[in-house]
Design goal:
With 211 residues, this protein is mainly beta. The chain is built from 2 helices and 10 strands, in the order αβαβββββββββ. The protein has an 8-stranded antiparallel β-barrel with strand order 1-3-4-5-6-7-8-10. β8 and β9 form a beta hairpin. The protein is elongated. The N terminus is likely disordered.
């Protein structure tokens, strides 16, 4: 097994060493990605189906509603060492918003709502491998590993390891400007009971500039 790993590593290193210089060294990009995981986890709570006649008149239960989502807003910079290997850093930001209020036994809101604004900011050093280049299309994959900072307007703050696996990405464009589309998996968690996101930002699109 060790011999196989050594051979694979040597083969990858050979590809990198034999690669030509890239047509441009620098790349900056801004983009947007979906929040499928967050919309599945953070959603309005169902109304309690109690029998009002069987409960006291002052019965109350808390519920959440009026959710909003920004999607993943990201930006990155990459420096191309060769035609194949690029490295840099990416920042990813998202916001999730909702209201919390008390309901009576019939499910009617009976208190002033409290607005909760929840934010996640990821700082992710990144590496990209471009395995196909042409005049109009580049195809690549990559990996980003870093840190998530979660905070909200209730003065809560947490840190968690984060990583993004870019399974496949395509850049289309000629010259300095281009558009990108990626399929990936953005994850941030401390353990099985402390999960911030799993398989988020599955699809993302962006606009980049190279020079």
């Amino acid at each position: 097994m060790k011999k196989l790993i050594t051979i694979a590593f040597a083969a990858c290193l050979s590809v990198v060493c034999l690669a030509d210089n890239p047509p441009s060294r620098h790349s900056v990009r801004v983009g947007w990605g979906d929040m499928l995981f967050e919309t599945l986890v953070f959603h309005p709570s169902g109304k309690d189906t109690y029998n009002p006649e069987a409960l006291p008149g002052d019965f109350r239960s808390k519920g959440t509603y009026d959710y909003g989502y920004t999607g993943h807003i990201f930006a990155d910079y990459l420096y191309s060492f060769t035609d194949v290997v690029s490295a840099g850093v990416q920042t990813d930001f998202e916001g999730i918003f909702w209201k919390v209020a008390s309901r009576d036994a019939a499910g009617t809101v009976v208190s002033d709502p409290v607005r909760v604004n929840n934010y996640n900011l990821c700082i992710l050093p990144s590496v990209r491998f471009t395995y196909f280049r042409s005049e109009w299309v580049d195809i690549y994959s990559g990996l980003s590993v870093g840190l998530l900072m979660a905070f909200d307007n209730q003065r809560q703050f947490e840190l968690a390891p984060a990583f993004n696996l870019n399974l496949v990405g395509v850049r289309v464009g000629k010259g300095h400007w281009g558009g990108t589309a990626e399929i990936g998996l953005l994850n941030a968690l401390k353990g099985g009971n402390d999960v911030f996101m799993v398989g988020s930002r599955i699809i993302s699109v962006g606009v980049n500039y190279t020079w």
